Amino acid sequence: MMMMMEEEQVSCLSTCRVKVLEISGYGGTCKELKQMRHFLGKLKYLETVKISLQIEKNENYRQRVTNVLKKLPRLSSKCQIHFF
């Protein structure tokens, strides 16, 4: 039996017709970033991502987190990210 690498596995997200994804309490951890990368890379019908940031650190850190999220590749060309 041949094992597949994580990136090669088929994701059920690619067939989901999710248009809006809302995330609350985003803190900018490595695990959260990995999850965001997965969502943005698999949800091909995604149009809007609303992210509520829960970052206690200074404003510079908050700005870096938002910049990283904005630069993540997206499967959907219509996908817009909004922070609140």
From TrEMBL:
Domain FBD: 11-84
Superkingdom field: Eukaryota
UniProt cross-references to InterPro entries, sorted A to Z: FBD, FBL60-like
Protein name in UniProt: F-box/LRR-repeat protein
Organism for this UniProt entry: Cardamine amara subsp. amara
